[in-house]
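Notes to self after the Tuesday call (sharing in case useful).
The group wants a holo model before anyone commits to mutagenesis around the pocket. I volunteered. Ligand is magnesium ion. Logging inputs and output together so the record is complete.
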Amino acid sequence: MIFFDIAVRNLKRHKVRSVLAAVGIIIGVIAIASLGIVGNSLSVLMGGLVSDVSDTVLVTPHLAASSGDPFDPRNTLAARISERNLGLIEKAAGQHRAIPMILASERLQVRDVGGYVTVYAMPADDIPFLLENEAGIYPQGRSSGVMVGSLLADELDLHPGSRIEVGGESVRVTGIAAERGMGIDINPDYALIVTEDWYTERHGDQDYSRVVVKVSDLSEIEGVKAAIDQQINRRKEVVDVLDSREILEIYYETSDAINIFLLGIGAVSLLVASVSILNVMIISVTERTGEIGLMRSIGARRREVLVMFLYESLILGIAGSLVGGIVSIAVGYYVSASVAEFFTDFAMSGGAGIPVSVVIGYVAFAMAFGTATSIVAGFYPAWKAAQLNPIEALRYE
Amino acid sequence: MPVISFEHVSKVYPLPAGDVVALDAVDIAIEAGEFILVMGPSGSGKSTLLNIMGSLDVPTSGEVTIAGNRISGMDDDDLTLLRRDHIGFVFQQFNLIPLLSVVENVEYPLILKARQNGSRERAEEVLEAVGIAETHFSHKPGELSGGQQQRVAIARALANDPDFLLCDEPTGNLDSKTGTAIMDLLDRMNREEGKTVVMVTHDPRMTDYADRTIRLVDGRVA
Ligand SMILES: Nc1ncnc2c1ncn2[C@@H]1O[C@H](COP(=O)(O)OP(=O)(O)OP(=O)(O)O)[C@@H](O)[C@H]1O
Ligand SMILES: [Mg+2]
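Result:
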């Protein structure tokens, strides 16, 4: 079709201009696709984090400023759950097991490697209930040593019987906790697990940082929550009680917000790209006013002029979207692989790769969006071209 | 039956400073096969007349019939098709498309009409008829001389085998020798191909070629 030929030729004649306009689309498509993929990676990861804790009710001290999000750093502020309230929680939990714990941070020194690690202190007989033992034995009573999270053990090459320095005191590693992944109750893989007795002997009696209630029958979660609320929060909000479903919701709300934000950035970049296409097309129409007049005088209908200019922006859009799509598949894979790898190393038990179909989906969406954007941007100049008066256009120099 | 007929045709441009009457109640009848010159001072309405003859423009009042079609009441697409199928334009500025090769420029109206490629042969035939050597077919218009460009433009005007050629100062941008060659070409198309030619010019020597001359003064036929 000659209109297509002419469009191609005109784009070729102004190579730099055309390439720059297409680059705008390329960037926009990459932005939308890769931000979409990143957002999706985060959702996938978050989903993985919380899917395995559906049996958990988490009781945390209520802070006026607290958002209710268990990952909110403000939750580690001084507020605690008292021994008395623990009693009430246990009473409310009934036959379900309530595990109180203290979260602290201690200096760890192994040979020449030093740093701070999270320490979970909980009653000795609750440890086996919450954690699997990969090697050695669970810590017992007050004199015995500590348990080490599996990834921390790997990194520092620790085994049952190794000696480490905790808070300046040399202690023995009794066992290694099996890798468990990140959870809303505890994240032991990079932590030390000690008995409550061990901890209070060194730091004195302390109130608890959180209480984890394991509900054996999921249908009872609501009841347990309500009972705890009843027992403790009657006069004023003392604790926040969350179950994993609510926590999932918080996660999804957060990740939705992130996704929308990321896609928004992508959309803005495509908007910018569409302005550059609009600009290029307006220049093209202005430059070729005489040619448009000639076309009209030898029998090109308005619609045909419109089509010719639409082809130009369509070609820019498709070329830009294709290149952008290919680049974003590469970028998307790299990003999702490295995000997954990062989290796998750090906290995840399994791989968190993103399904190919999701990557393709986002890329296809971005490409369609890029192409559509350029058609929309090209429409106004093309329409202007079609509406030109042939006589005036012919006279235009 | 005239191929072009104007009955009381007026063209008025309403401007803020007052109406400009470009054509004032013009009556013209042009028979098939005639070679007609349109002459007159600058601003007398020659181009306006030619544009209306070519259905590029419509009159403010009066009746125009082109190749048997009354143009009053025709919409933009109808007028465009009328141009495509019956009229060939030749302009002072040649108005070739710089992006397309010589032969593609001539092919353009053929493709517009046939709505498909593959009219190369016809384009080449017309180019040969106007005296463009085959070696120039694939050149870009900018690589040709003015006279050659005007020949290509005439070939383009002839491509769809129109009933008549409308030429607005086709020799205006050419030296007199080249201009004479173009006139000879138009004359040959008129005599041999039977094309009706209507041509605007300022050059009184051109009257030798013409069957008759329409003189315009202030939009009226003098
Ligand atoms: N689009 C327009 N708007 C307003 N006035 C116009 C327009 N086109 C032509 N005119 C006026 O109409 C009159 C006739 O113009 P036209 O172009 O037909 O003259 P012409 O005889 O071709 O002149 P020239 O020999 O200089 O080409 C002039 O007064 C011109 O100013
Ligand atoms: Mg004129």
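Two things stood out.
Residues 176-192 of chain B form the longest helix (17 residues).
The beta strands of chain B are 4-15, 18-30, 35-39, 61-66, 69-70, 87-91, 164-168, 196-200, 212-217, 220-221.
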